[in-house]
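In the lab's daily routine, each protein ends up as an entry in a very long ledger. A line of letters takes care of the sequence, but it says nothing directly about the fold. The three-dimensional part falls to structure tokens, numbers that each stand for a local backbone shape. The outcome of that step, for a single protein, is printed below.
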Amino acid sequence: MKVAPIICLLLLTCNLWVFSQEEDSNTYKDYKNFLETFHSELDEYSEPMAETDSPYMVTNPEPLPDFFSSIPNSGSSIIYAVGISDPFMAREEGRKLALLRAKSMLAIQKASVVKHMSDYFINERINNQAEDISGKYIDFYMITSALTYDSVDIEILADTVNRYGETMMLVKYTPEPNHATDTLISIGECLSSEIRDNSRYEVNHRIELSSENKSGLKKGTDNFNFISLRVQKAYEVNSSFKGKKIAPPSYTLRYKSTVEEEPGNSHVSYLSDGLWNAYVEAFFKHLFIQAKMYATKVKTTGDYHSSTTKNLNREITRSQQYFRLDKVSILENRMYVNVNFLNE
């Protein structure tokens, strides 16, 4: 979707670089404010190359397991998904987190409700025959999904760990009726923005993914929460597993290329903070772009003066998405993710 010479997004200000104090940051305040507006607008649609600074640099790129580029085709009855732990985790904890994240992706791929609200604001001023244009394009997405299953429905096909301590897992889900014992709920949110003001251009986002798994066979729940904050190409990652915070990597992580050119119909993300961070960003981009195709409501307001034009367009969408993971590729320390939508 092309929007004039301005393609812009965010609620992040350009002086926002201290991510660690998220609750005090402009990003977090803007996120909370925009979330309130998002809920108020969508309640009626509800049903019951600078890289991240680092004191270290890893010089030998890490290879990606072969299964990422040859994931079997999923269908309506069988779904394949990938789960990845955070870097530098202990092996057993990494396996548990990778499996839970794989289940979370199964739930999202099986069927997801995607709600989306976008605001596009343009301000044009003419002073002494010179035109001054500024614009902001803000998107907020919410993705909800649920999966009821039995542990025997999920088969681990591949389970490996690299020297960064990242556990990478490929799972196969074959549901059997009438014997589910577990329920998994996944919720994803993304606040994304582009801002352009003459020569200044910024791309920013805040992605959050959380999952909780309740088992009928044991007490307690398993859960994870993952937040990725991005300003331009710099990231800060906040991750926790079963309530325990996971320290982010101290290294700028590097991975070997698996392709020689950019794959078609894919979306790209940067790998400096690990495989999972890049995977979540690139994967969700597919959902976001697809959601924009289902605009159900558009509001427009304007304010016009002799030397100033202000415009605000708001789009609201709600759709149900069915899609499957195709493959994951790496080129020059960037990840490319391909998915296939089944409801096109």
The mean pLDDT is 81. The radius of gyration is 21 Å. The chain is about 15% helix and 45% strand.
